[in-house]
Design brief:
525 residues; mainly alpha
Length: 525
C-alpha cells in the first residue's frame, strides 16, 4: 500500500478546513455578552423606531458609534430571520474570512505565490486573540478591520499602476464607510497611509492632483448624506463632541506618565501574545540583514512594513489602546511574517531549531490540556462527551507533535492545525459551558422571569438607563418582540425596572436582582 505523502499544501488545506468548521461550530450557543448586547439593542431600536439615522440605546440618544454596523446586523436579521446569536455573529465570521481572502489575493498577485497567500491567511485566522475571542462576537472591530484593510490595499494596488482616480475614490469610500462604522480613527488611518505611501514613492505632488480632491469630495458627500439626515432629528454638535472626547480619552494627554510608560512597554508584548502563532515567526527576523529583508527585497513587503509601523505608532503612544483597535493592521503583520518565513533558508540555522522547539512546546501543552478536559470542574455537566473529545483531540494534536518531531520542516503547518483543533475544542466545551452557567446565561434567565411576570403589559426602565445588564434587555426585547425604553415618569398599570432604593412606596415589588453591586427591582404601580 502506497504511503500518503505529507506536503505543505495538504497540511494547509487541513488547517483551513478545520478553521472554517471551528469558526462556525456552536457560534450561536453562548448567550450575548460584553459589547454584543449594546450593538444588538441599538439595532433593535433602529428597526422598531423605523428611524435608521439616529441610534438610540434604551430610548436615549446613543453617540458613541455611528450606525453602519447596526445596519449590517439588521440586514442579516432580516435575511436570516430574527435576532438570534448565530445571525448576529455571522457578519464577524464573514468579515474574518473576507480579510483572509484579501490577504490571499494580494500575496498571490504581488509575490506570485499562492501557497504563501494561503499561509498568510491562515496566520491571520489563527491569531490567538481573534481565534479564541473576537471572531465569535457580534462586535464592530473585525468588520471595521475589513473596511480599513481594503482601503490600504487599494493604495498599493492602484498606486503601483499610477491609476489615481480609482485609488483616491476607493480609499475615501473606505474612509467614509469607516467613519460611519467607528468614527474618527478612519481619518487617521487614511491620512497616515496616503502620506506614507506617496512620500516613500517620492510622489508627494500626487496628493494635490484633482483625483485626490475628488476622493475628498466623495468622503464629504457620504458624510453629508448621513449627517444631514441625522440633523433633522437631533443636535449634531453632541455627536461630534462625543466622538472627540472618546478619541481623546485614549491619548497620552488624558493619561498619567506612568500609564504612558507602562503602555509603551506592554503594547508590543501584548501584540506579540495576541498574534501567536504568527508572532513566533519573529525568530526568523533575528538576522543581520533584517532591514534589507523588510525594506529592499520586495516593494509590497516594504509597503506592508511602512504602513504597519506608521499606522501602529499613534496607538503605541496612546495608553487607552486595546488590541482590537489595530486589528486592521494584523493582516499586514501576518503577511510580513509569512514573507519572513519564506526566506528562512537564508536565516541562521538555529532560528529553525528554536521555532521547532516552540512549536513542540505549544503542541505538547495543547495535547496535555486536551487530556485534562474530563477533570475540569466546570465541564462536569457534560462529562459524557468530554472523555471522547479529550481522546480525539489529544490524538489529533499528538499526531501533529509526532510528525513535527520526525519532519521538522512541517512545524508551522502542524502548529496551525494544532491551533485549529484548539478552536474546535473551545467550541465544544467553553461555549456550551457558558450556555449552561455564566453571567450571560443568568442574565438570559432573568429576562425570561421578567417576561413571564410582565406578559404583554408596558415595561420600562426608570431613573437609570442601565438598571440591569444590557444582555437582559436584549432577551427581554426578543421575548416581547418590542424594545424596552426609559421613562422616568412612572404611570399606574405599567411595569418598571428601577434601583430598589428609588422604588415608590406604593409600588409592588415583584422581583429583585443584584446588578453592579446594587439591588434592582421589577415593580408595578
Amino acid at each position: 500500500m502506497q504511503r500518503i505523502q505529507i506536503s505543505d499544501k495538504i497540511l494547509y488545506f487541513m488547517a483551513g478546513l478545520l478553521l472554517l468548521l471551528g469558526y462556525l461550530l456552536n457560534l450561536g450557543v453562548q448567550p450575548l455578552y460584553l459589547e454584543e448586547p449594546r450593538r444588538t439593542i441599538v439595532a433593535m431600536e433602529l428597526l422598531e423606531n423605523q428611524n435608521f439615522w439616529v441610534p438610540t440605546l434604551i430610548g436615549e440618544y446613543y453617540y458613541n458609534k455611528p450606525p453602519l454596523y447596526n445596519w449590517l446586523l439588521i440586514g442579516f436579521v432580516k435575511l436570516l430571520g430574527g435576532f438570534t446569536e448565530f445571525n448576529l455573529r455571522l457578519p464577524t465570521v464573514l468579515a474574518s474570512f473576507g480579510i483572509a481572502g484579501l490577504m490571499y489575493a494580494a500575496v498571490k498577485r504581488y509575490w506570485q505565490n499562492a501557497i504563501l497567500g494561503v499561509l498568510s491567511a491562515l496566520l491571520f485566522l489563527t491569531a490567538a486573540g481573534i481565534l479564541l475571542f473576537f471572531s465569535m462576537l457580534a462586535e464592530i472591530d473585525l468588520f471595521y478591520a475589513l473596511i480599513v484593510f481594503s482601503g490600504i490595499l487599494a493604495i498599493y494596488h492602484f498606486g503601483e499602476k499610477e491609476r489615481y482616480w480609482p485609488l483616491f475614490l476607493l480609499v475615501y469610500l473606505s474612509c467614509g464607510l469607516g467613519v460611519l462604522t467607528k468614527g474618527l480613527p478612519s481619518f487617521v488611518f487614511t491620512a497616515v497611509s496616503l502620506l506614507v505611501y506617496f512620500v516613500d514613492k517620492k510622489r508627494f505632488k500626487v496628493l494635490f492632483y484633482p483625483a485626490h480632491f475628488a476622493g475628498i469630495a466623495l468622503l464629504g458627500l457620504m458624510l453629508y448624506a448621513y449627517y444631514s439626515q441625522y440633523a433633522q432629528y437631533h443636535d449634531l454638535s453632541r455627536v461630534w463632541m462625543r466622538m472627540l472626547s472618546e478619541s481623546g480619552d485614549r491619548t497620552v494627554v488624558s493619561n498619567s506618565l506612568g500609564d504612558f510608560v507602562q503602555h509603551l512597554l506592554l503594547f508590543p508584548l501584548n501584540w506579540i501574545g495576541d498574534m501567536a502563532p504568527a508572532s513566533l515567526l519573529l525568530v526568523f527576523l533575528l538576522r543581520k540583514d533584517w532591514r534589507d529583508l523588510l525594506l529592499k527585497q520586495n516593494s509590497f513587503i516594504r509597503f506592508c512594513t511602512l504602513l504597519l509601523f506608521f499606522n501602529a505608532l499613534p496607538y503605541w503612544i496612546s495608553p487607552g489602546t486595546r488590541m482590537r483597535y489595530v486589528y486592521m493592521l494584523y493582516p499586514l503583520a501576518c503577511m510580513l511574517m509569512a514573507w519572513v518565513y519564506s526566506q528562512r533558508a537564508t536565516a541562521p540555522a538555529w532560528t529553525m531549531r528554536v521555532f521547532r522547539l516552540m512549536a513542540l512546546i505549544l503542541l505538547g501543552a495543547f495535547g496535555l490540556g486536551a487530556l485534562a478536559l474530563p477533570w475540569i470542574p466546570d465541564l462536569q455537566f457534560m462529562q459524557s462527551t468530554t472523555f471522547g473529545l479529550a481522546i480525539a483531540s489529544a490524538v489529533a494534536i499528538g499526531c501533529c507533535f509526532w510528525t513535527c518531531l520526525r519532519k521538522p520542516q512541517f512545524a508551522l503547518p502542524l502548529l496551525l492545525i494544532g491551533f485549529a483543533v484548539v478552536r474546535l475544542v473551545f467550541d465544544s466545551t467553553v461555549l456550551p459551558q457558558r450556555d449552561h452557567e455564566s453571567g450571560g446565561q443568568r442574565n438570559r434567565a432573568l429576562a425570561a422571569r421578567i417576561d413571564k411576570i410582565v406578559g404583554d403589559a408596558p415595561l420600562y426602565t426608570a431613573y437609570q438607563e442601565k438598571v440591569v445588564a444590557y444582555t437582559t434587555i436584549v432577551y427581554v426585547n426578543r421575548l416581547r418582540k418590542r424594545v424596552v425604553k426609559r421613562k422616568d415618569q412612572l404611570l399606574e398599570g405599567a411595569y418598571y425596572l428601577v434601583p430598589l432604593k428609588r422604588a415608590p412606596k406604593n409600588a409592588r415589588i415583584l422581583l429583585t436582582t443584584e446588578y453592579d453591586d446594587k439591588i434592582k427591582a421589577l415593580i408595578k404601580l
